[in-house]
Amino acid sequence: MEDLIIIKSENNFEKTIELLERELSERKIDLFYVIDHKKNAESVEMQMNNEKVFLFGSPKVGTLLMQTDPSIGIELPLKILIFEDGNKGVYIQYKDPKLLSQKYKVEAKAELLEKTSALLADISNKIKKDTP
């Protein structure tokens, strides 16, 4: 799992979610969908800790990547997982996009993936603490 980045949030689950939504909105990044795993578990009378997956990105960037190698579409849109462990610790997790150039035929777009990786790192670091 060396392609996964995990960052501990200094905020509770709800605040971390709020900060992520605000950060995406302020950057004008399209939020396509949110999967609420806890809510889905409860719908089948099962319990689990808070866990949500946010699917987001830029259609322009994604299209450029998929024009180069359509198979990369399985990785898109970008995803950030926010989850809470049994001790109420909250974590931000995502796959490092720059490693996709090794898995798909998008070497020509490596710089784009590097910028996307830096963007996810910046977003994660901003939402891990409640600072302006």
Q: Which key terms come to mind for this protein?
A:
single chain, 132 residues, alpha+beta, TATA-Binding Protein, five-stranded antiparallel sheet, 24% strand, globular
Can you characterise this structure?
By secondary structure, the chain is an alpha+beta fold. It has one domain: TATA-Binding Protein (2-Layer Sandwich), CATH 3.30.310. Helices cover 40% and strands 24% of the residues. The chain contains 5 helices and 5 strands. The chain has helices at 13-26, 37-43, 59-68, 100-103, 110-127, and strands spanning 4-8, 30-36, 51-57, 78-84, 90-95. A 5-stranded antiparallel beta sheet has the order 1-5-4-3-2. A hairpin with a 5-residue loop joins strand 4 and strand 5. Helix 1 crosses helix 5. It is globular. The chain starts with a strand and ends in a 5-residue tail after the last helix.
Describe this structure in a few short sentences.
The protein is 40% helix and 24% strand. It is an alpha+beta fold and 132 residues long. The protein has one domain (4-124): TATA-Binding Protein (2-Layer Sandwich).
Shape: globular
CATH homologous superfamily heading: TT1751-like domain
N- to C-terminal distance: 32 Å
Any guess at the CATH architecture?
A: 2-Layer Sandwich
Query: What is the name of the CATH topology?
Result: TATA-Binding Protein
Write down the CATH class. Alpha Beta
Tally of individual helices: 5
Q: Give me the strand/helix succession.
A: EHEHEHEEHH
Structural classification? alpha+beta
What is the total domain count? 1
Approximate strand percentage = 15-25%
Strand order of the largest sheet: 1-5-4-3-2
Helix content: 40-55%
* Unreliable stretches covering 5 or more consecutive residues: none
Indicate the mean pLDDT. Answer: 94
Radius of gyration in whole Å, from Cα?
15 Å
